[in-house]
Task: structure prediction
Amino acid sequence: MSEKPKIAFYWCASCGGCEESIVDLAEDILEVAKLVEIVLWPVAMDFKRKDIEALADGEIVATMINGAIRTSEQEEMAHLLRRKSRVLIAYGSCAHTGGIPSLANQFSRSELMKYVYHDAPSVDNPESIEPVSAYQSATLPVFRDVVRSLDQVVSVDYTLPGCAPNPALVLAAVRALLSGDLPPKGSVLAPDVSLCDACPRIGSKPTELSIEAFKRAHLHPIDPDQCLLAQGFACLGPATRSGCGERCIRANMPCTGCFGPLSSVRDQGAKALSALTSAIGADSEDEIDRALDGIPDPVGTFYRYGLAKSMLRRKVDLATTTKN
Amino acid sequence: MPNVFEPRILAFFCNWCTYTAADLAGVSRMKYAPTTRVVRVMCSGRVDPQFVLSAFAKGADGVLIGGCHPGDCHYLEGNTKFLRRFRMLKRMLADLGIEPERLRLEWISASEGDRLRTVVNEMTEQIRALGPLHMPAHFKEWDTEVLVEDLSHDREEEVGERV
Result:
């Protein structure tokens, strides 16, 4: 047993979809399981933190961490696994760029607590109880002010992008790891071309787009063959890395950007904003503004998976709580 | 000297109109607030929203973009393309807590040195009233809650050796 390379999986602020994507390897997971020894996988196996602490530094060949970093516990585990692992892989959008959880970077901790424990329509909390990080002898992880991507907390060697990463890329990455045939450190393990490049509808994308007004996908019928941008839907294909298998496009939905930016782009939202709005077919301020009304939530549209890694990282005027 | 806050405004001026206007203001010896750092671009259409965000993130208190009047673009519609981005960028920055006065787009032709002076003075006053944006200090403050290891450390060799 012990000569097999050790692999660990861990989850932080995530939904569980990334774990699902590992299970989605289907029979291929048996091939992987034969070749490696899994030393940590909280969703599926009963190993504890002390088991990891007992390992020598660098004893784990590769660790894949999904989820963003929001709590002190997630941060500690990221540091522990970084120390114990030779290769650390940010797995999925949340670990890569902050993901959906990092949209919470538009709100302060007290605003979030107020909504989640008091104001949300589904809440029943007559005694107005809010979580505390210490009560009598019990302690809970501290909820940080800011949601971070994994590489904003520890150094990351590779990234598997996507919400969730697609099984073909995962399998290719695992095979590369086991064979030692690895790309340069820091690589995102997906093609460095935009989604449009691989899009099955590329033939219907006009050379010069002219969008009269942006449309919201749930309010208008979508032609299943035509370029989504040509139809006026805010498709983030031009500013998003390909490699996902164009799953959304094939399901007749516009790209929402989960594979993150290309290597030449520093801020995915800014680039997506630039690509989409430049294509508006209006010249006057009023007409442009009217066309833009179809994107009522620009932060949620352009930074859906990447607010943590955006240049501003967070709504700039939010309060911070005192250090814990 | 009283301790007044001098805003730092990063300005992107198009080569054909606004940059020439700034030149004209200079040779005409017009006096205006020394708050802008000018970057000459070939066209306002060259200004990527990333430039604007990067300026704020690196400590600018305001960003001013100057281009040719509509219809006068040397490249036909570069200024219009930027206008479209600008209208959305304004909305997005408002949602991210950046006051609208900190980002400004002006059409200033090569002969309007005086207009340039007015715009820079006006913007300087508006931003002075708002105070500094201080993004680098914000980043530092936000990160006091976590232990951030030295991420600049390059692990490349180690990875190569260990695997």
